[in-house]
Amino acid sequence: xxxxxxRWMMTGKGEPLTPAEFNPFVAKADEVVVEIAGxxxxxxxxxxxxxxxxxxxxxPLTLGHEISGRVVDTGSDAFYWADKTVIVPxxxxxxxxxxxxxxxxxxxxxxxxxxxxxxxxxxxxxxxPAHGLCAVDEARLQHSGIDLADLSVIADxxxxxxxxxxxxxxQKGDLVVVNGVGGVGGYxxxxxxxxxxxxxxxxxxxxxxxxxxxxxxxxxxxARDMSPRDLKPAIKDFAKKRGxxxxxxxxxxxxxxxxxxxTAFSLINHGATLCVVGFTMDKVEVxxxxxxxxxxxxxxxxxxxxxxxxxxxxxxxxGHVKVASFVEKHPLSDINQVFEAxxxxxxxxxxxxVPN
Amino acid sequence: xxxxxxRWMMTGKGEPLTPAEFNPFVAKADEVVVEIAGxxxxxxxxxxxxxxxxxxxxxPLTLGHEISGRVVDTGSDAFYWADKTVIVPxxxxxxxxxxxxxxxxxxxxxxxxxxxxxxxxxxxxxxxPAHGLCAVDEARLQHSGIDLADLSVIADxxxxxxxxxxxxxxQKGDLVVVNGVGGVGGYxxxxxxxxxxxxxxxxxxxxxxxxxxxxxxxxxxxARDMSPRDLKPAIKDFAKKRGxxxxxxxxxxxxxxxxxxxTAFSLINHGATLCVVGFTMDKVEVxxxxxxxxxxxxxxxxxxxxxxxxxxxxxxxxGHVKVASFVEKHPLSDINQVFEAxxxxxxxxxxxxVPN
Lengths: 356, 356
Description:
Mean pLDDT of chain A: 96
Largest sheet of chain A: 7 strands, mixed
Order of helices and strands of chain A: EEEHEEHEEHHEHEHEHEHEEHEHEHE
Number of helices of chain A: 11
Strand content of chain A: 15-25%
Distance between the termini of chain A: 11 Å
Low-confidence stretches of chain A: none
Oligomer: homodimer
């Protein structure tokens, strides 16, 4: 290794992130040490850093929960992970508690999220539990031509909407609306399409709409150019032309904004499924009774169960979901500038920080 | 028949309901004529009458969609219903369209609701489609000691929460909260308990709380006596004492009020299911993102598929769900006074109008 292991610490809301050397080679029996290839910068990180959303682990803390890399050391029980190329789940359930045993790992009270419960991925190395790791077949990765660092975004930006899409039961013939086609929504659109849905993308950013129109969305509507009231008729019209249903739309709210959630809620029709994927602290004003009147449902989605990671990875390695064209890599040492740029909406793609 | 067939017509919002003679013996091939034993007065009827909620069928219209009675004439294809004792579903799907064939009858676009799409049950007779009718075994009814008129409320007040409870998947060990234990919520509580749930009732009306505490609720909380903030800790405390989960609560919102919906939403915890059963035109202000943060869901429920009626009827005939003590019968000719009393909250029980 050319340099000593390093991680970037958040010491307080908005305080400059600072590098700190540390010794990662302290894996317990069921833990591994991962040398990080890349770590994606997520809206959630910005929420901790700029908005003062509290982390579970006290500050100082290394943020970052979208991690790919290679196992360089293991605890005694995790020996079989040695030298494997892996994706670290953004949320790692304990696997042994009551809810985990009942198949609901996303609500595990003991779950560990890097960059929230434990030190995260804006670092050269990380120590994580071995259970839940997703192995990446290296021959297949090489064949795909995808950079391991780019796969980091699978750990949240891809798998979170993947679970949401599976949970919603998207299948051939479904009309799928994705509201907010940024870092997460862009993957929601691609995954929904890969599973048979016909995708309508809605956003206020034309660049993002253009990008997703070239990667799976069959209709891209700029919500800046139309009133919220015109959106539903426009989608109805599209459904009619395509011979798709005027009922049971599946709507993914990925903008994580008040306006976006209210827009998404307004698109509910008979038998609709609204998937709440994005997060905002803001309350919204909605007619909740529409769920009753339309026999519709709103499903929240938190992270993704590790069991789904291999299938989500398959979609990427098979080329159904593009990641490379939706990310931009930056040296980890530029973390402060990259956070600023992401915070001000100056990045067109999701940033992945690569240790340098 | 002692009198000529008669139905009570709504001619306009708040206008006195007026009786009109008519000839019900006009059943088409797949229709039957039911001589009505009783018809329940529902919040929905009051919404049409007092709040100006529009009916699908133009006025004048006979309201009423909770109907029990006896088949006294049939169309040629429905001959096998002759002389049967029946409950008429509150919502009758067509059974043949695309959504019906895909098992989603509650969003059938051709569904007929008596008292909304067709003339309803505040009458001596009604003509309805034969498909979807729920037969009542007369020997069993007699053995149960329940009056056929009382069974009318099964057609909405019992079956609607029944479907909601089934849809939510209530089972043994679940902590179930029912917010609003009036005409519909009281049955939600009884049904949830019959299926194994431990029920917490929440209401602002002590009489209703007392009634449900005697019929299945193990904790009855008067929301007038406590702040909304204290409600969740009180239920947590109860769960702890009973060894029930602090996650995955199943919450039935049956008050159909803004305050009630906001209260119910505030009770969402990890993995919770919020069932929106009651209806209000009012918007609510909620943090929709909590569905995401808690990996929770909100499910709307519209009516009940006819397939569920026999099982709901079983619960009543077997004594698991009491109806007689939750209804009060009035002569149909008192309809105007009964509407007024129900509208002003002067009735302690659900009113059933009996032709006289």
